[in-house]
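[SOLVED] Need 3D model of a two-part complex

Original post:
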Amino acid sequence: MTSSVLFAPVQLLLLLALSPLVGGVIKTLKARIQTRRGPGVLQPYRDLAKLFRKGMVIPESASWIFSAAPVVVFATAALVGLMIPMVTAEAPLSLFGGVLAVVYLLGLGRFFLALGGLDTGGSFGGLGSSREMTISALAEPAMMLAIFTVALSANSTNLSEIARAAIGQSWRFLAPSQMLAFAALFIVLIAETGRIPVDNPATHLELTMIHEAMILEYSGPYLALIEWGAWIKQLILMTLLINTFYPFGLTLEYSPGGIALACGAFLAKLLLLCFLIVLVESTNAKMRLFRVPELLAVAFILGALALISTFLF
Amino acid sequence: MYFYQDPQFGERMITLMAALVLVLQIAMVAQRWIVTNIRVFAAQSFLLAGIANTIAYFNHAPHIYFAAVMTFLIKVVFLPIFMERLVEKIEIRQEIEPLVNVPLSVLISGGLTMVGYVVAESFYHPESGPGAATLGHNTLAVAVSLFLIGFFMMLNRRKAVTQVLALLSLENGLFLAAISLTYGMPLVVELGVFFDLLVATMVLGILVYRIRETIDSMDVSKLRRLRG
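Solution:
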């Protein structure tokens, strides 16, 4: 138990350092698949460094919420990152809370982001916030159903317990309920991180934008915090997806060799998931906003079927 | 013994493929484009052929191989190509307009799946020892759900081509129920069903063409206007 708390700074460092890289890798892979050269993998780090050096423009109509939102978004994301098993099966802060705490801490971050969008009174901000809230309200039930499916088979909502139970059973990842829950959670991942069928992460100019519309008023270090928080959130959701369904290589003890091996396995799985996301992004066109509920209804049904089939299969 | 000879592994694979078949059926309900719908149907039939193959392999029932090959040839290769040509030829709008909107139809399909499970549960008697009744109950549930959802799709769609597609996926459910419960019907019945299906689709194809020629639309609900 003590060693798991001692591991917390390591995981925090890993989380902070790795999350922009994942964003960069996805961007580069996507460019390559579309036969463009694209920015380098390290571009997000350069963006962050630049944003932190710049000054800020704060609208006159902004209240304290405008300055609080980026901090809350970043802090909740970093905190949640310590509550999920990343390379060790025991999450550093697993005593703090299980999967419900994870989901609703992310919800708190999203709530403040939406408030930040509304705060300045700009029409784009309000538009983005309302869309974000609509989508997350639809994505949340699907996510909860998928997560309850894995929680049921582990008899616990604690993520460390879930990961440990998943390591114990071979062939479990082939069970239909697991596949259905994985598919549901994958759709939720796409929706929550604003990827292509739902939102386009690469544009500031479309009327259909969601995430970008909310943060249109932010600049400088605040924008850097929000962007970094969004990357961390993306990494968290991806980690949640791969480590609850495919927990190969998660280490149970804290030896340097075991941790190094687990890191390697984690990075390999992450790269595979990045590739999957890039494939989905490159082969689909962005949906009309009113079609998004259809996609999320499919995710919801997949989650519900997963839950039913754990009882019956 | 290799893992691929382990009956447990076979059962897992069958269950997994059956679950994927169900997912594809719901994808068909949610999907709006006719051509994509046809391809989803082809993928579903391919998985079905896979299930038939696996059952044949693990239960040493050579005549099911035949059913698997027939499924592959007719439902994966021939019918999708035939229907895609038909869609191209009659130049209809590529979008399906269901009567009930998509999120609600997906939810209804979920509900129908639950009904399927409840129905299949009553066939499940593990105490009577191993046999068709215990092996089949996962796949039977999926089969009943496929049947119900296929039926719902037929009701829910206006155009004749998409109704044919729903009929075919409904028949997939029947096939799945047959092979999972009885390890395949007699070959003659099997052949008869395939032939039936083939002829039905061809006839419907011609009929669809005629409907469009006569009333300049594919919407079957407009056929009522012909009454004097």
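Edit: The CA atoms of residues 61 and 183 of chain B lie 8 Å apart.
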